[in-house]
Amino acid sequence: MTTILDPTDERTPVVRQITPRTGKIAGVVGLLDISKPRGSVLLDELQLLLAARYPDVELRRYAKPTFAKPCPSDLRAKIKDECDVLVEALAD
Amino acid sequence: MTAEKPAFTLTDLDGGARRYPTGRPALLCFVKEDCHTCNLVAPILQAFHEAWGGDADIWMVGQSADGNAILKDRHGLTLPILDDSACKVSFAWDFEIVPAVHWMGGERGLVDRLEGFVRAEWQDLAARIAADLDRPAAPVDWADYPDWRPGCGSKHLDPDIHDRLQADADDSPIRARRIEVASADDIAEFMFDQGFSDGLPVVPPTPERVMRMLAGTARHPQDVVAVVPPNMAPATVEKVAINAVLAGCRPEYLPVVIAALEAVCTDEFNMHGVTATTMGASPVLVVNGPIRQRIGMNMKLAALGNGNRANATIGRALRLVIRNVGGARPGGVDRSTLSSPMKFTMCFPEWEEGSPWEPLHVERGFAIEDSVVTAFAMTSGPVQIVDQESRQPDQIAGTLGLGLEGMFLSKIHRMPVDALLVVCPEHVNTLMSEGPYAKARLRERIQAVTARPVREMVANEISGAGIPLASAAKMTEAQLASPAPKFADPKHIHIVVAGSEAGKFSAAFHGWVTGAAGSAVVSRKIEC
Questions:
Q1: According to the 3-state scheme, what is the secondary structure of B32-75?
Q2: CA distance linking residue B329 with residue A53, whole number of Å
Q3: Do A31 and A82 touch, CB atoms closer than 8 A?
Q4: CB-closest option in A3, A7, A11 to B207
Q5: Spatial distance between the Cα atoms of B23 and B7, rounded to a whole number of angstroms
Q6: Which of A9, A23, B290, B471 is 20 to 30 A from residue A61's alpha carbon, by CA?
Q7: What is the value of ipTM here, to two decimals?
């Protein structure tokens, strides 16, 4: 762990930047399996529930080659281009 | 050296916690395994332990865990050896040389302290301990020991370790929020994510780096240097130092960054307006005086460009303070249409020794021996002014005038706007080829060669900029024919010398809105 000193006026908390949440489920929803065991089970169930509740939403499945490494940049770009919302199943 | 020493808890070689004080008298000796003198005294301390261990705590405090185990095996030690590999206790006990032996036998703590090895002093100390404890002398063959051996510098004084310990100490000058970055995080990426960067990589401002940076100024870390627009946030010396670390400054640059920040955070300079304008203005810093050489600034070949750490990072540090403390960010208060690379950094020194004129700071009322930074709010530059043919002084002066005529738009004249003209040495040589050519004469020449009839400023089919047709219709023929020089007043033409001795290429920076409604040039003395 490295400690650094805050160069700002400290008016805002230091937090990891996360993508703004849309607040709604619409358009194309991606379901990303990180390839950890049983992640696909969770996503299969989620896909059924989403399809039943949001018939107008298009669902697309994606999978990382391995959970042990960051998402390949091509796959990340593809998801970004194709999806409005992404659900990522993180762990078993 | 104070009589009472701080309490501590350290582990011994068996992993047991040893807390000082225990309530008994104590002899504590700080040692390093790789110090010959520490090895010399180890058997003496063991003898002390065997003689007096029932009445007093005789402890070695070692500055590396591995070293402690080696000392134990090498000398067959049975006395407790405590692990101070973090050096926090060594730092708190405040000595310089190991072995550092402390006899804590009195009611008020420290009775005696010795650093290094002087046999007679150690013998006196042994006699004193025996007397204080009312016990027989320890069996040490003092004649086997040399009269004197120097010790070694304590590990806690190594610069990297000491700066970190100082930053962590209870009386640390560091007050800024500490941000812990997980080891799995890439620290460079983390700082980009947090928005601490201008878009280029920044140096992580660790507490030890900031401590070293603070050594560059005599000012107290919590002194407020300036209230920084646009958020009007106070910037302490510490915050300036943190941003100077981010920018890549060396500690000796810090006084220049501090003075520059003072200059731009004045009402006259108007950093808020300079930040907010869609025109994309930014400070251009000119450094004068002895500090230029002292910190190795580049005033000659490539003075306005890349390659010199001081030139590059001083200007960048100022920009990062404005960004991080003041909150000036593109798309926020910074509304620049195109902006400019000057918003990364723009700082250079005047080559006073290559100039026939008074240096800028002397012209502005400072003593020649003062070190001074002058801030200009500029929107363009450096714009090259090329003339490789002129051989007459007035021709070169004329060229410099024509070069400045393009400022904003060539047809706009009588501008109440500052310009900063950087004259290269070869152009200086031509100017001076027939004798002194004063700055006042150069300014007059610039005004003379740029004087055009007011009529040429009127909006027309080529360009709608300038005097509106309706206004021009109300002017007399004499008014329309009257000559209008480029500048409303020669005082707007600021002149310095810099650059390589080869090349007939001067340059100009073009200003923003000058004066009370915009920005005025501000100089500040650099307190070194």
A1: CCCCHHHHHHHHHHHHHHHHHCCCCEEEEEECCHHHHHHHHHHH
A2: 43
A3: no
A4: A3
A5: 11
A6: A23
A7: 0.77
